[in-house]
Design goal:
Order of helices and strands: HHHHHHEHHE
Oligomer: single chain
Mean pLDDT: 89
Subcellular location: Cytoplasmic vesicle, COPI-coated vesicle membrane; Endoplasmic reticulum membrane; Golgi apparatus membrane
InterPro entries: ER_ret_rcpt (IPR000133)
Helix content: over 70%
Structural class: mainly alpha
Number of helices: 8
Shape: globular
Protein name: ER lumen protein-retaining receptor
Family: Belongs to the ERD2 family.
Distance between the termini: 37 Å
Number of domains: 1
GO molecular function, one term: ER retention sequence binding
Length: 208
């Protein structure tokens, strides 16, 4: 494992923990898109089904279990425990416009036409666009809380570091995964406008 993948994983974990702590400490999920969190839970569920079939390393297994557990914990906090604070009026992105095309694409473009491989490919494609409901929600309200911008920053940083990881692996290991790279590029592009505003306008800003 290279340093870019490790720091990418830690950035991803930081984003998830920041979001969970924000919800728990404030006792509110205001400003958080429940739809994006459901999509991320679906991403981790379909990607990490190999937990039932293979063992790679303790680190790999631990991180997968943490991602899945935290994803469903976040969904529970939003839709159950702090449901009264959930802003469903602004969380209106039509997620079927993401899930259906991504599902179809995963059947058409994959590495191997097998159930686990198709589900893994589906998770890669879906992750690249899963943040759209959150960005759409922020664009409707016009502003993002400081803690939400930190969450998005670390989430974007994770994906950017993973792109560097793929480049590193190509040059030093001869490993190349076109599906993961293209999806990663798409996801990073979605964060570009956010990154610019985060750096130039500080922690809290009007979005779009």
């Amino acid at each position: 494992m290279n340093i870019f993948r490790l720091t990418g994983d830690l950035s991803h974990l930081a984003a998830i923990i920041i979001l969970l702590l924000k919800i728990w400490k404030s006792r509110s999920c205001a400003g958080i898109s429940g739809k994006s969190q459901v999509l991320f839970a679906l991403v981790f569920t379909t990607r990490y089904l190999d937990l039932l079939t293979s063992f790679i390393s303790l680190y790999n297994t631990t991180m997968k279990v943490i991602y899945i557990g935290c994803a469903y914990a976040t969904v529970y906090l939003i839709y159950m425990k702090f449901k009264a604070t959930y802003d469903g009026n602004h969380d209106t992105f039509r997620v079927e416009f993401l899930v259906v095309p991504v599902g179809g694409l995963s059947f058409l473009v994959n590495h191997d036409f097998s159930p686990l491989e198709i589900l893994w490919t589906f998770s890669i494609y879906l992750e690249s666009v899963a943040i759209l409901p959150q960005l759409f929600m922020i664009s409707k309200t016009g502003e993002a809380e400081t803690i939400t911008t930190h969450y998005l920053f670390f989430l974007g940083l994770y994906r950017a570091l993973y792109l560097i990881n793929w480049i590193w692996r190509f040059y030093f290991e001869g490993f190349f995964d076109m599906i993961a790279i293209v999806a990663g590029v798409v996801q990073t592009i979605l964060y570009c406008d956010f990154f610019y505003l985060y750096v130039t306008k500080g922690e809290s800003f009007a979005f779009f």
